[in-house]
Design brief:
It is a single chain. With 422 residues, the protein is α/β, with parallel strands linked by helices. The protein is built from 16 helices and 13 strands. Strands 1, 2, 3, 4, 5, 6, 7, 8, 9, 12 and 13 form an eleven-stranded mixed beta sheet that branches. A two-stranded antiparallel ribbon has the order 10-11. The longest helix is centred in the middle third of the chain and has 31 residues, at 264-294. It is globular and about 60 Å long.
Length: 422
């Protein structure tokens, strides 16, 4: 059986590009669209061009699909598009009236009686349908075959340990890869299973924690302050990051305007936004500063002992439109029981659009996000192709396509090139 690890001279594999797929709930459909554009940019039957793949939360699902079908990249992305393009809420969690009523009554009883002992509710929503869907859709046993045949070096799935209070990146790859230990974050070799995926997407309170070995785990974004780190530890020297937020600030109310009290839906959306998004922005800021420091070092490296610092080029893909505005147009597609719950939380109005944008697993919404990601990818076709071919990133600090959402931050550092019309 031929080993594809060496690739051809000048192939993307020679650059050890790491693909970073952060979490984002239903917004993860945008990542599928960008990947679809990349698949069309590459030759038709190209193998997976990303030797190292790191996924968290919803991004973990896409990472596992690509890793399991690494022989032909376009086939993997076609399967991803088929799943995400046909999503309905009942594919992710039980959304019928009886289940929603029973869940509400269960939580109400637990609050009134000060707990129900072993019968305490474990989560707001039952996501067993998603487990069933992933069981049918992903052949996780094929990941090792992708590694053995040289189509993949490593895949990492990150989850948060409730017992150890650490971010754990479970990785499957070559036996030469070493685990790592940092403050509140570790990397551990393991065979990726369905439990790893279900743990990584277990949004706290909403979905139940998942036991792996002797610990329960929840959504990987919870303690992942450094989402770029797993791919770097696994050997990536260039990073392609597909984020799912590039939205404008809401307008600041005038001095005479009444400021409404934030609804539960708005607060919940804020919490999810911080959970899924803030780690990536902070880690990109950290990478920017490290690259800036290394620019004046020989070979752009700095020996600091067991973990030398390396200059890492990065290409960041972010939505060209505010995804919250897209969600507003599709909230009516949610099942009636879910709409009632969301309405009770104040999440169906303008202020609650943030929450809806993460939970709207409906095909009208996910297809529009796929289309947006695809269009954004093709709009940057030349830039993506050059990056995949190993061309140096000429943007300041080696990071192209990203701007921090804080204007104050951008004023403190040399201007980062921003793609598009922002």
């Amino acid at each position: 059986m031929p080993d594809k690890r060496a690739g051809t001279a000048g192939s993307p594999r020679d650059r050890r590009i790491g693909l970073i797929l952060p979490g984002g709930g239903a917004r993860g459909a945008y990542q599928v669209g960008v990947l679809k554009a990349i698949a069309e940019i590459l030759p038709r039957r190209s193998p997976n061009p990303f030797p190292i793949i790191s996924g968290t939360s919803a991004g973990a699902i896409s990472a596992a699909v690509i890793a399991s079908q690494a022989r032909v990249f376009r086939h993997a992305i076609s399967d991803l598009e088929r799943v995400w393009g046909h999503f309905r809420s009942h594919h992710v969690f039980r959304a019928d009236s009886w289940t929603m009523l029973k869940s509400s009554a269960h939580w109400t009883a637990a609050i009134i009686f000060g707990g129900l002992g072993v019968a305490n509710p474990r989560s707001l929503l039952d996501n067993s349908p998603l487990r069933e869907l992933l069981t049918r859709a992903i052949n996780l046993n094929a990941i090792q075959e992708s590694i053995d045949r040289g189509y993949l070096d490593a895949v990492a799935i990150t989850a948060a340990g409730y017992g150890s209070a650490r971010s754990v990146s479970f990785f499957q790859g070559a036996s030469s890869l070493q685990p790592w230990d940092r403050v509140r974050r570790v990397g551990r070799p393991d065979t990726i299973t369905l439990n790893h995926l279900m743990a990584s997407i277990a949004v706290p309170m909403m979905f139940p924690p998942v036991r792996i070995n002797n610990e329960y785990f929840g959504d990987g974004a919870m303690r992942q302050a450094t989402p770029l780190s797993p791919a770097v530890h696994l050997g990536a020297d260039r990073l392609l990051v597909i984020g799912v937020r590039d939205e404008e600030f809401d307008p600041v109310p005038g001095p005479e305007e009444e400021i409404p009290y934030p609804s539960l839906g708005r607060i919940a959306g804020y919490v999810l936004d911080a959970l899924f998004m803030d780690g990536l922005s902070q880690d990109l800021e950290r990478l920017t500063r490290i690259n800036q420091m290394l620019e004046c070092q020989p070979n752009r490296e700095c020996d600091v002992g067991s973990a030398p610092l390396r200059y890492i080029d990065a290409l960041i893909m972010l939505p060209s439109r505010d995804i919250r505005e897209i969600a507003v147009r599709h909230v009516h597609e949610m099942p009636r029981p879910v709409q009632l719950l969301m309405n009770g939380m104040g999440a169906l109005n303008y202020g609650g659009r943030q929450l809806a944008s993460y939970l709207l697993f409906e095909q009208g919404y996910t297809r529009e996000l796929i289309r947006l990601g695809y269009e954004d990818g093709l709009a940057r076709r030349d830039e993506i192709q050059a990056f995949m071919e190993g061309a140096p990133v000429t943007a300041p600090c080696g990071i192209a396509g990203w701007r921090d959402l804080s204007e104050q931050y951008s004023q403190r550092m040399r201007a980062l090139r921003v793609h598009g019309t922002h």
